[in-house]
Amino acid sequence: MEALNNIMRILFLGAPGSGKGTQCKKLADKTGLLHLSSGDMLREATAKGTEAGQLAKGFMDKGQLVPDDVLIKMFEEKLSSPECAKGFILDGFPRNLAQAKSLDALLEKLRSQLNAVINLQIDDHLLTERITGRRVCSNKTCNAVYHMTFAPPAQEGRCDLCGSALYQRSDDKEELVKERLSAYHSQTEPLIDFYDAKLLLRTVDAQGKAEVIFADILKTLDSQKKTSNRN
Ligand code: AMP
To answer: Ligand 1 atom closest to Cα of 38?
Structure first.
């Protein structure tokens, strides 16, 4: 997977429940790239009670997108920091066209650009089951993700990796899933065409087992790299 090491700035697109977080984490573990999850960053800000976190909470609790300026400021600070100089994996940002255009402007300012956009493709009817069955490790440095049916922990309610309690995110409850999927379709899905037009988009079938999907992602990134080397 040597060629993959040269791809440094990767963006993941996919509906809530498409397995984006899981795949980004696997890729970060394999490559050492920094995994930047907008949802995790917002939840951390909310837990710390920062100004941005307090503002974000009201929107997150309703399954709605947090205002663009909060996200743009958060990512401007993060992407300009030295820890991002060696590359990153973006997970959950951008989530609409305004954010995507701001990201373009920011990367241009940093004399940088995305190398690939992976779109995790999955049928809507599978998403609700995936989201409502999801359980997350309460230890913020672990953040491991399980599924009650598809990837249960060895001991019910406990993380296999660190033993901390698992919990269900409040926005993973069924009442909010419809709202989040509708936000995805109306606001985030247009980004598929946006990045396709930039010849960055690679679509991966995200309906099988996590390991198989991950292998497809690695293959896709590898071939993307070889294509850009030829051009
Ligand atoms: P996630 O963990 O990616 O499912 O995100 C959880 C929630 O955080 C979303 O339902 C939104 O309320 C908020 N959020 C995460 N990323 C963004 C973003 N790029 N723009 C606006 N809101 C976001």
So the answer is: 16
Structural domain of 41:
2-123+188-230
Tens digit of pLDDT for each residue in 115-156?
999 999 998 888 999 999 999 999 988 989 999 998 999 999
Residue range 163-167: mean pLDDT, rounded? 97
Q: Of 134, 135, 202, 225, which one is the catalytic site residue?
A: 134
- Domain membership flag for residue 176: no
> Is 169 known to be catalytic?
yes
Q: What is the CATH number of the domain that holds 83?
A: 3.40.50.300
3-class SS of residue 36: strand
In order of 60, 74, 107, 215, the CA distances from 78 in angstroms are: 21, 6, 12, 29
Give the chain's domain count. Answer: 1
Q: Which of 9, 57, 95, 225 is catalytic?
A: 95
User: Which two three-digit tokens encode residue 179?
Assistant: 């709202």
Helix (H, G, I), strand (E, B) or coil at 118: strand
Mean pLDDT within 100-126: 94
Instruction: Give residue 155 CA to ligand 1 midpoint distance, Å.
Output: 29
Domain membership flag for residue 173: no
Q: Is it the case that residue 3 has pLDDT exceeding 60?
A: no
User: Is residue 175, in this structure, part of any structural domain at all?
Assistant: no
